[in-house]
Design goal:
heterodimer; A: MetI-like fold; 14 helices; B: alpha/beta; D-Maltodextrin-Binding Protein, domain 2; 6-stranded mixed sheet; 18 helices
Chain lengths: ~325, ~450
């Protein structure tokens, strides 16, 4: 914005004075400096809210501090060393990777299937769309007690299993390290498949129907059309969803915290829940800040990686 | 653009004046940070905000109503926050200037976190109770709320103690059962309840802070005082009594005492709601549960548990069943100040806030209300509940038990939270859940506690 507002003025100014060279450069520099006050409010807001916050978090990450003590202790990189040596951090990263892979593939598969089905003019399609999308708009804090009840030892999920003749599978899903992560993943899929579906539904609307008709004439069936025409046609959406899912997995907090408090035994701990746990209930704000910086680096790295991979496959250098 | 350059030169003095003005404002703000009587406002009028995780709003309303009989011009507004969200809400509020005038504080981690924002209330105590004020209030309510530098950060409203279980008397009567005195008896009682489709004992073991209460109660049922010695470094956490307590904790899960899936259940609201809705016969709660022995306290609690047309039922406290020996009819409790009222140093109505905190914590009228609400055992010595004014569902069954609990709590010296650092608190969570799930032996879990205590800087003899 600053550049576009300054350049035309420079042209007018130089031509009116009829001078070039050193005088013009000096005036140009002066005008650039004078443009600063105009962009200052936006600069302060963006720098203040984002970059200052990041910088301050980076500073706090070098402290041993409970968040209120007026005399925090500087510990250098000790919090980062602690993070690298902390098995719970690695556990949280492992959960994040599993969470991303499973939720992304299942949500993508379900989203594509729902979008394809609802593009085929099924009866009551609008109602199905609403049903699929409703979980997206429900607040996790409202749904968390419901899921604690549903997946409880005497909850509705076990009741359903028993009535389906699968009573031997009934178990306290949230109380076991072996099953609690799967429950959290299932809740995420339930919640976010609607968004995946909507994005794919919109992307599929952009595919030229004539291409599909040509494929039909050439003898392509439903599966062949899906694999060879539709999926390549929505590739951009898939890349965008992969990036969003990766960042969302790294930032996951609400569902695991509200449903299992990251437990049992850290079985549903993610970086987001761990940062909250150490920063707030445990008042170890310095360590929490170090984890936040690690999370930031991971999120940026993941976004860049997915973006670059997506570009490469699109043939964009 | 030319015009803007010209305008800039005209704006320069304006900007300079603005900067000077802001600097002056900043300096005046700095200058006003030291408090004076004028800054603290009137001691008899003003609008005071109070944030707390306890008492329940109904109890707070009673305190405020009684206070307003003496101080009608001080309007106190109470806001209850969840205990889990307390730190997250209060830290930024106190760090900014939008914090409450009065806030709850209790011994242990929260004293470390929030006492620096609080005014020293020692002069207020001396003014209200005289120079020998310490002799007139419960010592357990003073020690835990005093900083290392000697500042009284909050005035204790009352104390609370853990180490008891609460029973649903109707369910015990219905199945002709007597409350268990030992863990072995407990197993049998639970067997009967289970056969009849009733949950025996409910605890939200996912909310690990309450696991420490249960472990401490078990330890004290084996050998009183060992837990406290480990907390002060006088014995190690690997002491056989602690290992036995962890073994017994494991037994609660293995022998069917604890409800299925306890590690996925939170104490609040899940376990509390299970008990209040009559689905469970017993729950691990401390003296803060006395308020539900009253019809006024229990009716909304049952309603909040999702029961339509709530009908209060009699709840009765019992000592924690003994892990060894024949058991005792006496309570083995640990406790501290439930909460004290801290006055925010940044408050603009500090004097009025101090008036309320002092009235509730030291006046006979305020402390009588505290006693009658039965949320806490009063901080001021010599105050007892006025039973005639407290409606109970089954007075003959409840009053003697609750009175006994209060009497025995008055003799307790073992702290509940006062010696727990945040590192040790985390270690209790790890130890209790890993043992319950079979991922660590009691010996390994005890070693985890020892390592964490040492890492937190506790020196052991």
């Amino acid at each position: 914005m600053a550049k576009t507002s300054v350049e035309p003025a420079l042209v007018v100014h130089s031509s009116q004075q009829g001078s070039v060279g050193g005088l013009g450069r000096r005036k140009r520099n002066r005008l650039r400096q004078r443009g600063l006050p105009w962009i200052l409010p936006a600069l302060i807001v963006s720098m203040g809210l984002i970059f200052y916050g990041m910088g301050y978090t980076g500073y706090v990450s070098t402290l041993k501090w409970n968040g209120t003590d007026p005399d925090p202790l500087s510990v250098g990189a000790q919090n980062y060393v602690h993070a690298v040596q902390d098995p719970v951090v690695w556990q949280a990263i492992y959960h994040t990777v599993v969470y991303f892979i499973v939720t992304f593939f299942i949500q993508t598969a379900l989203g594509v299937v729902f979008a394809v089905l609802l593009h085929s003019k099924v009866k009551l399609g609008v109602i199905y769309k609403i049903i699929i999308f409703v979980p997206v708009v429900l607040a996790p804090s409202i749904m968390a007690p419901v899921f604690r009840q549903v997946y409880g030892a005497d909850g509705q999920f076990n009741w359903l299993l028993q009535h389906l003749g699968l009573g031997s599978l009934a178990q306290p899903w949230l109380a076991q390290s072996s099953t609690s992560l799967a429950v959290i993943i299932s809740i995420h899929i339930w919640e976010w498949t609607g968004l995946t579906f909507v994005l794919y539904y919109a992307a599929m609307s952009q595919i030229d129907p004539e291409i599909l008709e040509a494929a039909r004439i050439d003898g392509a069936g439903n599966i062949r059309s899906l694999i060879s025409i539709i999926l390549p046609g929505v590739r951009g959406t898939t890349v965008a969803l992969a990036m969003l899912s990766a960042i969302s997995a790294l930032k996951t907090f609400d569902v695991p915290w509200l449903v299992t408090i990251g437990g049992p035994n850290y079985a549903t701990e993610f970086l987001g829940t761990l940062i909250y746990r150490v920063s707030i209930p445990e008042s170890n704000v310095g360590y929490g800040a170090a984890l936040s910086i690690i999370l930031l680096v991971l999120a940026l790295g993941m976004a860049i990686l997915l973006q670059v991979r997506g570009r490469d496959k699109d043939g964009v250098s | 653009m030319f015009r803007s350059i010209g305008a800039k030169s005209r704006l320069r003095p304006v900007a300079a004046a603005a900067i000077l003005g802001m600097t002056a404002l900043g300096l005046s703000a700095c200058g006003s940070s030291g408090s004076s009587a004028a800054d603290e406002g009137s001691a008899t009028s003003g609008n005071v905000t109070w944030w707390g995780w306890t008492p329940q709003p109904s109890g707070a309303e009673r305190y405020i109503a009684a206070f307003n009989k003496e101080y009608p011009d001080i309007k106190v507004t109470y806001k209850q926050l969840t205990i889990d969200g307390w730190n997250a809400a209060l830290k930024p509020a106190l760090a900014s200037s939008s914090g409450p005038d009065i806030y709850d504080i209790n011994p242990g981690v929260r004293m470390d976190d929030f006492s620096s924002f609080a005014a020293d209330l020692t002069p207020a105590m001396a003014k209200s109770l005289g120079s020998d004020w310490k002799s007139k209030v419960s010592p357990i309510g003073v020690d835990g709320l005093t900083t290392k530098s000697g500042k009284l950060a909050a005035i204790s409203v009352g104390s609370t103690y853990s180490g008891s279980l609460w029973t649903n008397k109707n369910l015990f009567d219905q199945y002709h059962l007597t409350p268990p005195k030992t863990v072995d008896e407990w197993v049998n009682v639970c067997g009967v309840f289970k056969k009849n489709g009733i949950k025996c004992f409910v605890q939200g073991a996912a909310q690990v802070a309450f696991n420490r209460d249960t472990l401490q109660a078990i330890s004290n049922s084996i050998e009183p005082g060992v837990w406290n010695k480990a907390s002060t470094g006088d014995t190690k956490w690997t002491n056989p009594t602690i290992v036995k307590a962890l073994t017994t904790w494991k037994r609660l899960f293995a022998d069917g005492i604890m409800q299925d899936g306890a590690l996925g259940v939170q104490q609040y609201p899940d376990a509390n709601n299970e008990f209040m809705s009559g689905k469970s016969a017993m729950v691990m709660m401390g003296t803060w549960y006395m308020q539900y022995a009253t019809t006024a306290g229990m009716t909304p609690a049952i309603s909040a548990a999702g029961v339509a047309n709530p009908k209060p039922f009699p709840i009765v406290p019992i000592p924690f069943p003994a892990a060894s020996g024949a058991g005792s009819s006496d309570f083995a409790l640990s406790g501290d100040s439930d909460y004290g009222l801290a006055v925010n140093n940044k408050s603009k109505v500090k004097a009025a806030a101090t008036t309320f905190a002092t009235w509730l914590g030291t006046s006979k009228a305020g402390q009588q209300e505290v006693a009658n609400v039965l949320n806490d055992i009063p901080a001021l010595k010599g105050i007892a509940p006025n039973w005639d004014t407290i409606p109970m569902t089954d007075r003959s069954a409840q009053q003697p038990s609750v009175q006994k609990l209060i009497d025995q709590a008055a003799t307790v010296t073992e702290p509940r939270l006062g010696l727990v650092s945040s590192d040790l608190s985390t270690a209790f969570g790890v130890a209790s859940t890993t043992v319950a799930e079979g991922k660590a032996s009691p010996e390994q879990a005890a070693q985890t506690l020892q390592s964490s205590a040492e890492a937190a800087g506790l020196k052991f003899k």
